[in-house]
From TrEMBL:
Belongs to the LysR transcriptional regulatory family. GO terms for molecular function: DNA-binding transcription factor activity; sequence-specific DNA binding. Keywords: DNA-binding, Transcription, Transcription regulation. This is LysR family transcriptional regulator. SUPFAM superfamilies: Periplasmic binding protein-like II, Winged helix' DNA-binding domain.
Amino acid sequence: MDRLDSMSMLVAVSEAGSLSAAARRLDTPLTTVSRKISVLEEHLKTQLLTRSSRSISLTDAGKSYVAACKRILEDVSEAERTAAGEYTAPKGDLSITSPIVFGRLHLVPVLADFLRAYPDIDVRLTLSNRQVSLTEEGIDAALRVGNLPDSRMIATRVGTVSRVFAASPGYLQIRGVPLTPGDLVGHDCIGVEGFTGSGFWSLADGVEIPVRYRLIVNSTDAACEAAKEGMGIVSVFSHHVAQDFRDGTLISVLPDFKRETLPISLVRESGEYLPLKLRAFLDFFTPRLKARLSERA
């Protein structure tokens, strides 16, 4: 029996909440996961999981064993990283995540210079608007937009971003330019699932303006394209439309009314040891992102 492999699978099952979810996360056949957990239980001569038709839960012995497994696996991982030289030279694989549009506009251009500067570091960049778990998905650093919940994460602020209203010149010529937030009630608006409010937009002081969504999409890129086609007014972050404002394809609407400003942070897990590859990334990206964002403020 590969003890460490079985421990890893048990930890994955405990975190995922089911054998099938753990199997998907590990990209391993369900039968393999189930068999290895059973072999582990036979080896320990104790039941670790209570299985039902719909879910699983850890027994008391399972809870204690999983906690010990996590410590053991982390110690092994730390030893392997040390042996591989992650703490003596900036090298190895680095995993980063960022919101889609922000990553495309700001991370990718800086990443090109970073890879040239550090030829022994290979990067996996995941662009997703989903809040990716650093621990569960093996992410070294994440760029977050918005206020951060209290956690064990270490965050470095690199800038801020504000929400803005925008519309095409053609739409405003036909429908008129809103002069006050209340005027939005009579306009066609474009909503973004999970990003804009359900039937309202808000100002910096918390005032909520009811709006009518003529179109709802699940992507800020698509919402901006729809706005450029004259379908209505959109509410997005300033970096989503910065180039469109410069090109004149979109125009800022109600620019004198202050909207919510959110922090932009580089986030990593707390820990006693910081691999040099991650230190190199943070030292390289932090000042460059601050400079890029201040130029566009």
